Amino acid sequence: MDYKFVTAEEAAKAVRSGDWVDYGFGAGFPELMDKAIAARKEELKDVKIRGGLVIRPRIEVVECDPEQSAFHYYSWHIGDYERKLQSRGLVEFIPMILRFLPDLYRYHIRVDVACVPVSKPDANGYCSLGISPYAWRTIFENARTVIFEINEHYPAVLGVEGSNRVHLSEADYIVEGEHEPLPLRTYKDPSPIDIEIAKHVVKEIPDGATLALGVGGVPFTVAKMLAESDLKDLGCHTGTISDAFLALHKAGKLTNARKEIDTGRSTWNLAMGSQELYDWLNNEPDLFRPSDVDYVHSPDRMSRISNYVGIMGGVQLDLMGQENAESAGKRQLSGIGGQLDFLEGAYRSKGGKCFICLNSARKDKEGNLKSNIVPFIPGGSVVSAPRTLIQYVATEYGIANLAGLTLKERAKAMISIAHPAFREELAKYAEETFR
Fold first, then answer.
1. Are 83 and 59 in contact, with CB atoms under 8 Å apart?
2. Domain 192-433 maps to which CATH number in 3.90.1720.10, 3.40.718.10, 3.40.1080.20, 2.30.40.10?
3. pTM of the prediction?
4. What DSSP assignment string belongs to 26-76?
5. Residues 133-142: pLDDT tens digits?
């Protein structure tokens, strides 16, 4: 079969003024197409590019056009680099719940050109979506023009029954060339508070639990402690697979043996971490079920896995249990991503638990101590998760289980894990408000 291999410059001619172009999500990024589209700056107007959670250091269409005369960049989830763009007014945030993203593309929004990073094809023309299955299949099935960009560094993990596989024949254009090494996601050493929070959470995790770990200090610390614990037969059904799961695998703890779904395999939608993590995916593909958002982020599927445990981060919670997971006042820090999906999935699992983990307090720029447990989520900040969906909250002072509690009881539980310096004023507010 003849496939349409072209240069990135040739493929970029498919982009027209006024188009919506998709770049994908996470550590996967179509860098050759990005440069080629950026080179057409003088020819194009009002081209809108969507992406999210970008961890590489540069997006050419943004950096080449700070006046936004040709290109406008939109993010589903603000990553480290996009946060810097935000401070320069060069990114616009689009709120979404990750499990709804495929339906957004199917029924509500337009995509004209999909720039899809893929691995080198095998002898039959099949490529892997590598480290970022995302919602790519839905997106490119609804696009006017599909461009596959072959990245020689992508792990060739095709998944189960083609769950992470595409075929060259599905692309209108295929681009190949030399790429930078895959972007790495590193972790800081855990703080003393991270360690205290992790200790509380680890006590709540049983043998055979299947884990969904967010990205951050506490989830990574929990994984490290689990790797050194007596627990066994842990499983993975997570949005992002990271070095936290690699640590569990190296300790012999990650067997997936007790998962009722995808038994024996780790299930995930994105991969972000070290080169060792990417090598693991490439060298042992039979250990994994990478799949798209429709599969991985389905609360119904999670509900059929017993002892499903989610460990997520938060920014602020109020006394009713409402959570702000993504903003500092009016400033967007990240996005909700799949947190609501995993909160619901764990709630519906037999033996399931989902922990929102946060420091009880923080210091502002002037060095003043501020509580992260507040009477109410302040104006301008985001309520990312409603009080009805929050189950467990963990700080360095313990764990509050909010399931089935009244507003007054919730406030009491939240105050018990707040920083001692703020408990008195929180109790006063609760007494006046929750009668």
1. no
2. 3.40.1080.20
3. 0.96
4. TT---HHHHHHHHTTTTT--SEEEEE----SS--HHHHT-TT-SSEEEEES
5. 999 999 999 9
